[in-house]
């Protein structure tokens, strides 16, 4: 510092005039630093701040919206930016804290927590089945108009299992979309066969607008995941939402 702050001998130490002036200010700086560290530590534990979330449109409306309302009641200091889009967003590049994805498998680079299982169904309208016949075996689907969900990794390759027999069928159709509700609506209008989660087509099944087909064959179960980029630096607000969704959808 360019000046002596202390007198030091073998028996005692004492402050110089400059040291006496410097000491109380140094103590004040250390106290401010300690308070700043305590504030940062408190912030890292408090569940607050903004959280950006991506989710599929249909699942977001039917399942996620009520859950997020309850989450906000429990954590009123968290603000939510919810983007409903069936496209699989890039979490890091697009600035998302969390994404909800429905899939049979995920990229190994992602960190994910399973939330719930989703039953997949194969359906068609009564009019379509009267006009084209009902498939008796999964391989018959190669001759049918199959409506394809383009965001699915296995969009054109439909898998089936019956006991020990496993069948993979390459399907094609006149309509494909990245939105499941459009495909369900097209199936209701008699356009073709649709493969969708039960929660998307249950109302049409209940009303008779769609009928399940190939019910003696199992389709791979899909899982709803909460997906995030890095488990090491997870803010408390993100961890709180993940734990909340696991508890809610796991009930």
Automatic annotation (TrEMBL):
Family assignment?
Belongs to the LysR transcriptional regulatory family.
Swiss-Prot/TrEMBL keywords: DNA-binding, Transcription, Transcription regulation
Q: Which domain of life is it from?
A: Bacteria
Q: Name one Pfam family in it.
A: LysR_substrate
Q: Which InterPro entries match?
A: LysR-type_TF_proteobact-type, LysR_HTH_N, LysR_subst-bd, WH-like_DNA-bd_sf, WH_DNA-bd_sf
What are the residue boundaries of the HTH lysR-type domain, all occurrences included? 1-16
This protein's record includes keyword rRNA-binding: no
* GO biological-process terms attached to the record: DNA-templated transcription
The entry's protein name is DNA-binding transcriptional regulator, LysR family
Q: Which GO molecular function terms does the record list?
A: DNA-binding transcription factor activity; sequence-specific DNA binding
């Amino acid at each position: 510092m360019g000046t002596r702050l202390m007198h030091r001998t073998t028996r005692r130490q004492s402050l110089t005039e400059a040291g006496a002036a410097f000491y109380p200010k140094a103590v004040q700086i250390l106290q401010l630093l300690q308070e700043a560290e305590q504030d940062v530590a408190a912030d890292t534990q408090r569940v607050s701040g903004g959280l950006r979330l991506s989710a599929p449109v249909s699942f977001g409306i039917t399942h996620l919206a009520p859950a997020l309302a309850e989450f906000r009641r429990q954590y009123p200091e968290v603000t939510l930016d919810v983007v409903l889009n069936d496209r699989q967003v890039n979490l890091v590049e697009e600035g998302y804290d969390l994404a909800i994805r429905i899939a049979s498998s995920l990229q190994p680079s992602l960190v994910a927590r399973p939330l719930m299982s989703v039953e997949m169904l194969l359906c068609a309208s009564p009019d379509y089945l009267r006009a084209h016949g009902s498939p008796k075996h999964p391989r018959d689907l190669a001759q049918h108009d199959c409506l394809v969900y383009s965001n699915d990794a296995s969009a054109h390759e439909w898998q089936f299992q019956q006991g020990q027999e496993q069948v993979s069928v390459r399907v094609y159709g006149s309509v494909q979309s990245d939105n499941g509700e459009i495909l369900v609506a097209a199936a209701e209008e008699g356009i073709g066969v649709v493969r969708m989660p039960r929660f998307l087509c249950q109302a049409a099944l209940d009303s008779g607008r769609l009928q399940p087909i190939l019910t003696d064959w199992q389709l791979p179960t899909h899982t709803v995941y909460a997906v995030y980029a890095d488990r090491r630096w997870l803010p408390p607000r993100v961890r709180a939402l993940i734990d909340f969704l696991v508890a809610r959808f796991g009930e």
